[in-house]
């Protein structure tokens, strides 16, 4: 079992990928796995996680920043991130709680940078500003064909009884989402020490196991012998 004497510092794990690849589903499952090992973990998301960051989320996802352009949107995402890091991520880690975030800084690089055309100099400067040395310990990049992922998003809307109108980025065309997928692949390949790339085109349960195996491999303190 996870002995107190084996305890290491709390870890910061982020999930990244395109729309509908299963991030939220798997964030919840990872949290349950950690809690079953008596590890206190906080689930959060970006943009969001704090009241001020959630206000920025609503503003952007309702499309109110669209006419400002991708550069201004990158700055807005970074402002939300700065608050999120200072108010939630940093204090949680300091209190010994693991933090699992549904999206983080790689989303700005993929959406606004590599797909939206914002210059790398600005993206990197915003990362330095907003992260304040809180680069994630591990990032799970979920990858799949966006056409299949969008079928899942449509199904989710159907199950929730909603008409799918698409938020600020969901309504971009399929070519845009294919470039976005390439952007995340580029980020994963450029950061092998942090990122683990996993195919999301598999059953929910098998994907959960693949992620858990990768997390255990990254953090050996989680490894439990003779696990069922
Ligand atoms: N492995 C899977 N196989 C089939 N369906 C899945 C799988 N994982 C999640 N789903 C379903 O696909 C939909 C999208 O999943 P989820 O909300 O977890 O994705 P997401 O990446 O967080 O989406 P978004 O980017 O829109 O926030 C949900 O209806 C969910 O139940
Ligand atoms: C953090 C972040 C997010 N986005 C985009 C990605 C999604 O379209 C939305 C968030 O919605 P989700 O249902 O929670 O995935 O925002 C972005 O463009 N840039 C970012 O930095």
What oligomeric assembly is this protein in? single chain
| CATH architecture annotation name | 3-Layer(aba) Sandwich
Helix content estimate: 40-55%
So what's the overall shape? globular
Ions, cofactors and other ligands present here are: adenosine-5'-triphosphate, ligand LXEULUCI
Largest sheet: 5 strands, parallel
Q: CA-to-CA gap between the ends?
A: 13 Å
Pfam families: Thymidylate_kin
Binding site for ATP: 17-24
Organism: Devosia rhodophyticola
Family: Belongs to the thymidylate kinase family.
Describe this structure in words.
With 228 residues, the chain is an alpha/beta fold. The protein has one domain (22-217): P-loop containing nucleotide triphosphate hydrolases (Rossmann fold, 3-Layer(aba) Sandwich). 52% of the residues lie in helices and 11% in strands. The chain has helices spanning 23-36, 51-61, 70-94, 105-115, 120-131, 146-159, 174-190, 204-218, and strands spanning 12-16, 41-45, 98-102, 138-143, 195-199. The chain has a 5-stranded parallel sheet, sandwiched between helices. Helix 1 (23-36) crosses helix 8 and helix 3 packs parallel to helix 5. The longest helix is centred in the middle third of the chain and has 25 residues, at 70-94. The protein is globular. The mean pLDDT is 93. Ligand LXEULUCI binds next to helix 4.
Question: Concise description?
Answer:
The protein is an alpha/beta fold and 228 residues long. It has helices at 23-36, 51-61, 70-94, 105-115, 120-131, 146-159, 174-190, 204-218; strands at residues 12-16, 41-45, 98-102, 138-143, 195-199.
